[in-house]
């Protein structure tokens, strides 16, 4: 029987929720964080509905603040007793030329997409060491491909890709596996997008959930340290 527990930041919608649902289907319990306590509890209640036992707990945590993540980890451990998987998914984007991007927007992007992942692994590394667990960051193809008006977002994702690869070298001797997933266009609510039929060509959140499940099933001797994921049939330009 699968008794694993996953800690997922930004787990109430989009990629985070897609991964949570896929893991629950495999018998894994999930700890979901969101900046909104109401959203976190609402999604946890939905995931727990009709289940014989509690499979999800929703917690408030702004990943920009280490104390908030540390508190969520503590509460999650009190609820489920262990953390085997960590998916650092929380992220946001502001886009514009260097003249347009404000200092506030820059810090929001860097502090969430990059420092937030640093805070997440710092808060969970002890639990992962104990469980010999798996840490996954959700980067982006923007972590290797730069584009106009992407200074803040590119910087955060280039940094995240490098951070996670270095982290993999730091933690493998502790028995912790580390990977980064770098999706292209995903059908999510990112930056106010409303997913609809026009997004059918994009990667779907459940696709990334399936990918994560498959990664966890690989033989322990094998590590996909960096995975780029693209829509297979994007519209012709």
TrEMBL record:
Top-rank taxon: Bacteria
Entries under PROSITE patterns matching the protein: ADH_SHORT
Any one GO BP annotation for this protein: monocarboxylic acid metabolic process
Residues annotated as domain Ketoreductase: 4-187
Pfam families to which the protein is assigned, alphabetical: adh_short
Family: Belongs to the short-chain dehydrogenases/reductases (SDR) family.
Protein name: NADP-dependent 3-hydroxy acid dehydrogenase YdfG
């Amino acid at each position: 029987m699968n008794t694993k527990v996953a800690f997922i930041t930004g787990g109430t919608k989009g990629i985070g929720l897609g991964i949570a649902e896929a893991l629950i289907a495999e018998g894994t319990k999930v700890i979901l964080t969101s900046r909104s306590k109401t959203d976190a509890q609402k999604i946890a209640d939905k995931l727990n509905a009709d289940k014989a036992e509690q499979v999800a707990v929703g917690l408030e945590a702004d990943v920009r603040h280490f104390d908030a993540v540390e508190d969520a980890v503590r509460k999650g451990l009190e609820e489920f007793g262990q953390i085997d998987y960590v998916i650092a998914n929380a992220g946001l984007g502001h886009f514009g030329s260097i003249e347009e991007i404000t200092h506030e927007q820059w810090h929001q992007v860097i502090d969430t997409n990059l420092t937030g992942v640093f805070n997440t692994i710092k808060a969970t590394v002890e639990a992962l060491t104990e469980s010999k667990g798996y840490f996954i960051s959700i980067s982006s193809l923007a972590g290797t491909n730069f584009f106009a008006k992407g200074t803040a977002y590119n910087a955060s994702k280039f940094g995240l890709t490098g951070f996670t690869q270095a982290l993999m070298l730091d933690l493998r001797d502790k028995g912790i596996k580390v990977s980064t997933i770098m999706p292209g266009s995903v059908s999510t609510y990112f930056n106010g997008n409303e997913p609809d039929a026009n997004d059918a060509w994009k990667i779907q959140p459940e696709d990334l959930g399936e990918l994560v499940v498959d990664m966890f099933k690989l033989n322990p001797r094998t590590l996909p340290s960096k995975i780029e994921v693209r829509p297979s049939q994007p519209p012709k330009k």
